[in-house]
Backbone:
């Protein structure tokens, strides 16, 4: 089945220790998104790639970076995690269609804990 | 600045009855609206959507209503089933200015009791 896969599902890191979260997709979608969702809050878009074009949200901290080495994979790097970065990180994909809003397909998320 | 708001954090209904989930928005540029459902330990899954040129869209037990003048949309589930118990997120897009970027509400936890 075509799907969006996130690894690991649970990640524990130490304060200030860099961490990388992984997302892969078999849908061959050209757009990939990273969201941060804290408890009982709305998912918040951090950035997205349209093919290789990186689009950062204005309020995304510099501590968060992303890489997309190919169509299938996208990584979220947190350079120096703080306690406030503990959250669920959701990856989503979509295919850009002219004149339409793309339905986004989500992975199961990675729960990040910062000690 | 919360542009999409779901004012009810939770809703409990009896199996077989109607569930009505509400969502309000403030950005008049939003022209496409979606509902996602999320089970624990899973990512959100797309449920139903509506364009601003319509006021109603129906898919099986699920109907979304849009009232543009009130900047309000609602999701109706009839009849409700225990398997519908999940968190429901409302999302909106402003295609002209923001492309496919979605703004989400905080979610409403629906519990359908047998």
Residues:
């Amino acid at each position: 089945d075509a799907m969006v896969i996130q690894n690991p599902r649970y990640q524990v890191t130490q304060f200030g220790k860099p961490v990388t979260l992984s997302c892969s997709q078999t849908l061959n979608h050209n757009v990939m998104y990273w969201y941060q969702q804290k408890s009982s809050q709305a998912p918040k878009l951090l950035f997205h790639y349209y093919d290789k074009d990186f689009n950062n949200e204005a309020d995304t901290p510099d501590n968060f970076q992303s890489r997309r080495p190919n169509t299938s994979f996208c990584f979220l790097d947190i350079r120096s995690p703080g306690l406030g970065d503990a959250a669920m990180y959701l990856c989503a994909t979509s295919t850009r269609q002219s004149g339409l809003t793309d339905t986004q397909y989500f992975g199961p998320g990675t729960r990040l804990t910062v000690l | 600045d919360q542009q999409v708001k779901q004012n009810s954090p939770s809703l409990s209904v009896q199996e077989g009855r109607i569930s009505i989930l509400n969502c309000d928005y403030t950005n008049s540029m939003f022209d496409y609206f979606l509902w996602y459902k999320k089970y624990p330990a899973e990512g959100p899954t797309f449920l139903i959507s509506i364009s601003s040129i319509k006021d109603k869209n129906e898919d099986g037990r699920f109907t979304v209503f849009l009232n543009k003048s009130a900047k309000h949309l609602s999701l109706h589930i009839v009849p409700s089933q225990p398997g519908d118990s999940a968190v429901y997120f409302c999302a909106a897009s402003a295609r002209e200015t923001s492309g496919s970027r979605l703004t989400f509400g905080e979610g409403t936890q629906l519990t359908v009791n047998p």
Remarks:
- Chain B has a mean pLDDT of 93.
